[in-house]
Amino acid sequence: VLTLVRADAAFLDGRLHRDVTLGIENGHVVTVPPDAPKTDVIDLKGKLLLPGFVNGHSHAFQRAIRGRTEFLAPGHERDDFWTWRDAMYAAANALDPDSLYAVSKQAFLEMALAGVTTVGEFHYLHHQVDGAAYADEGLLAHQVVRAARDVGLRICLLRVGYQRAGFQVDPNPKQRRFIDADVDVYLRRSFALRDALEGDELVSFGLAPHSVRAVPRRWLEVIAQETKGTSIPIHMHVAEQPGEIRACMTEYGARPVELIDATGLLNENFTAVHAVHLDRWEVGRLGTMRCTICACPSTERNLGDGIVEADSLIHAGARISLGSDSQAHIDLLAEAQMLEGHLRLLRLRRNVLDPATGGASAQAVRLLDALSHAGSRSLGLAPATLAPGSPADFVAIDLAHPSMLGARDLLTSAVFAASSGAVKDVFVAGKPIVREGRHEQTAHIASAFSSAVAELRW
Ligand SMILES: [Zn+2]
To answer: Which of 180, 261, 305, 325 is flagged as catalytic?
Structure first.
């Protein structure tokens, strides 16, 4: 059945079009035939359509600790990533399958309301608190996938591999829920999960060796071999903290990107999450190998990680995608604004990501790529662009929203000025999941989330 969507404007095929009629059939964008029947029409007048946002890096359960770690722990004179991690581990160990579902669903609901149509879930809660596998080894992954699907999102479940606390670091009992004994167990469980997830077109799968800290070199070599010639997406935290670089140098005499490169993992299927602390060679190598960098600016700011040098990485040939990561905030438009904003603070100038060759919208177009297309590419999905043949995943920005009033260049205002409140309608595979700023399960999801969090003991 052909559905027509009418809007004031849309970002189609890489540029802005006015007075648009979009055709949708079987969940995809189609060319509207001139004699199209006018029966099934969705009216999005007064709105700008953009490709749906792809949240390339999420740990949904971390929504449970939002706002709860914003103070110095008693007896501490300073705070950093590693003390935040203690709180996060406490939450990770307090969740059961039901509360994990409730917390994840709230995170995904907030994503939907902010215009996210696809999430890449970097999932590392696998086992019971004592480390024993559940009878269904994929139970917790299924809970998270179900939460996303019940909200209406497309999801790529990136099953995380985790073996150890670190090089010459004693096992940490708080990490037992994450750990698979060796890479063979990891791959067996991962591919079993992939098979079990088959059947829903909106669910896909990838592999995520956690970091060079959490898995040894052999894991990366085996994963590179097992995925050679496939298009399975591989995601990995890379160079988030200086401590990771130091440990990697001590263990291997190499920096993280050098080590990963030597294992054969770097290619267009590889996404380096964060990639904050890189040297010049590493920046160049990630670009040459056509990797994606998933920047998570609000989390990198919240945790004091540092700034992703997106300008240098793009110049080297890498693609930049965006993620909400720790869920300190869930607002992908704000992530795009922060990506450029942090670079301004770093470079002490303005419009750092403007390629300066494409006119007034060029910088906004570049950030739209980070919001959508680069993310879908990094998750191995069909391009998140509004073009014939693409999935009908899109958002409608209200041109009458206070944050959009007075816009001259619609794309630039949508990316740099719009608040997430301007996102009024969100469609996934042609189906509305948010209409006029409302998701129909909002109250129900919020109350289940509040009860689940109130009962957490940590
Ligand atoms: Zn992360």
So the answer is: 325
